[in-house]
Amino acid sequence: MDLLLAAAQVALAPAALVAVMAGCLLGVVFGAIPGLTFTVAMALVVPMSFSMETAPAIGLLLGTYIGGMTGGSVSAILLGIPGTPSAAATVLDGYQLTRRGKASLALGTAVVASAFGGIVSLIIMVVSVDMVARLALRFGPAETFGLLVFGLSTICGLAQKSLVKGLIAGILGLMVMTIGIDEIEGAQRLTFGTVVLQQGVSLLVAMIALFAVPHVIDAFVQHYAGEQKPQEVADVRAELPTIRDILRDFWLMLRCALLGTGIGAIPGTGGPIAAFLAYAHARKSSKRPERFGKGEMAGVVAPETANNAVTGGAMIPLLSLGIPGDPATAILLSGLLIHGLIPGPMLFIQNPGEIYQIYIAIIVAYVAVVAIQLLGIRFFVQVLRVPAHLLAVAVIVMCAYGAFAIRNSVFDVVSVAVLGALAYGLMRVGIPLTPIILGLVLGPAIERDFRTAMILSEGDPSVFVASVPGAVFLGLAALVVGAQLLRSTRATLSDRRTEEKRRASVTPSE
Amino acid sequence: MQKGIIASVALSAAMAVGLCAPARAEFPEKPVEMTILFGSTAQTIGQLLAELMSRHLPQPVVPVARTGAGGAVGYQHVHGTAPDGYNIVWNSNSISTVHHGGGLPFDYTAFAPVAKISVEVPAIAVRADSGWETLSDMAADIKSAGRKLKVGASGRGSFTHLATEAILAALDLSDSAIHVPYDQGRAPVELLAGRLDAALQWPGQFVSHHEAGTLRILCVTSAARISQLPDVPTCAESGAGEMDIVMWRGLAAPAGTPPEAIARLEEAARLAAESEEFRKAAQTIGFEVEFAGHEAFGELIARDDTIIADLMGQLGLTEQ
């Protein structure tokens, strides 16, 4: 208790508080602007934290991380362009809500769900860090592969109407991510002997291209074709969700928070995967699944809760095992190292005070994020007053800048243009973009875990069903796919039967 | 005021005399860009070095991350810039691994060495309950059991993979081991979980588990023990015969950069590397400060390049 009080004294000192809030603000801004992400913001903040005291330095980094994770929902909801890859699932229903004039409501709900997810994951981390870390250890490559395949199978339900078009899209996504150097064998794939293509397509670049560029092209085409868009977004009231609205989805939020924490604790997964799984879960468990994709609030709540729960989940392997689960936690790790905090089992023994400081900083960060975002909604929604073609100019400039900022590479800017133009073409021929994103997000992880598992088992495929989690997840995946196939064949059969009946009834009159 | 007038008079006089004489009296006249090739610790050390160097130069050194393709992207960028000292690269042995692996059409001779800053020494670890105290224990056990040793390191052709293969060859285990590639430092977890028998990574990833008594660091691959782990033997002491495999990091500029500029940067780098702050960071991040001037650094790069080329050739990793 003395330790906790002492930690609180340090973590709640003015300098530390200011640092957390500054981090949150920076994170929200970077997260909210399409193209800029919190990973970039964190890389910018790290050098600043070198010369700071430990508590403010940790606070600044955590604030940026958490602010960025929640900020990603702002542009996802308002513009249909995710500010960060983790917010890609939020677009599906969030943008539809904006088109129905419920932008501020969706934004408010998203930030509350985010904070809920984050705090629940923090609580889980505090009470069961050792147990969760031990469980996460059981997820080796084979088990993670099973989990990812299960994720892919549930998410397949999101493919609209045509299964074939969905598959085409998914495979395109997988193919884009194979460009570059293969991390396992070090082989060059699809590089055409050039150095630039060796860097491959960054997930973020592909994300910007797929979401932002078709939007922008569409806005210009409509403007020059003189098409008058119906004034669907004229309503920019700053309407905030009531407590009752939020409590309605309480159990869903709790389930998604647990899911996000679990996914976050498994190294090599991360926010985007958790968000899509949560979205699929919300749709499955909903009483009105047909309304998903058309502006259902649960479709915003679920991914936002889950992707923020990942922040707490990812802290578990980071602090207790010293393993960063994603690029953002890798930056956090170097920030901790430079202040002499070496994550791992000894951290809890040698630096219990700093551990408490981290917990307190996370709570402060969520309070700050909720305050910043709820105050900010008024201003955010003003974006909707800007005519679409003017907004499109701003968006494309930010995207080009954001794409460049990831690795300071002109190649990435060119990639955005090329992939974006392709995405627009695909959209016009009715190929859905969501499965492409799934291919992008899940593809590299599935490939890596499959190959590592096969190397570990010396080429014996039974490794995938040798452990309980692996067998369970692959079994579930088989069930899901089987049920979907059954349903679709039954649907085709009954279609054919009605057709035959109609023909039968038509023939006599001929 | 007086000074201002004098300065402006002097300036106009200088302009009147003409700018025909190369005006590089004072390098640097604009910020120096330091390209960083990798994320995580390489980036952190590079950022800190840039900040410390800026204190000893009239213009700041700006760290810019150009990651990807095992460093090839950043090397190519710096290679393509003018050799005027305003573009330097935070380089490492990766110049040799990437070139010989077929990732880059040019080799280390495309760069002029500025200064060697630090070295990082890989360490090999096993589970504490494995009963292995030395490399010899491990080798004897594997040979008598007749099974294969699963060793985790980074991807094929990476520095930790080369170090792994060198140790295996020294222990005569090359044919009875499987290299399991991992990214993002996942190898220690896989080792803890029992899916691997050993892992070769940077000591920072093992140290907390080593102290907690769950993993045991068998040895470090350098010729001498390292300051971060004074109680851990070298691999030579542990039964691997003679061995000195370390990854150096340093600064280099495009070949043809004027010697004055290199000398100025070398001096700033020396002051930065010898500062108290850099030494403290070395302890916590887990690297050894080992400064060397541009001449000694150049010899080291050339020597290492032949060693790496040989090793990669033996392993069939070189691009034909």
TrEMBL record, chain B:
Pfam (any one): TctC
Signal peptide start-end: 1-25
Highest taxon of the lineage: Bacteria
Keywords, ordered alphabetically: Receptor, Signal
SUPFAM superfamilies: Periplasmic binding protein-like II (SSF53850)
UniProt KW tRNA-binding keyword: no
InterPro entries from the UniProt entry: BUG, Bug_dom1
Protein family (similarity comment): Belongs to the UPF0065 (bug) family.
Protein's recorded name: Tripartite-type tricarboxylate transporter receptor subunit TctC
Lineage: Bacteria, Pseudomonadati, Pseudomonadota, Alphaproteobacteria, Rhodobacterales
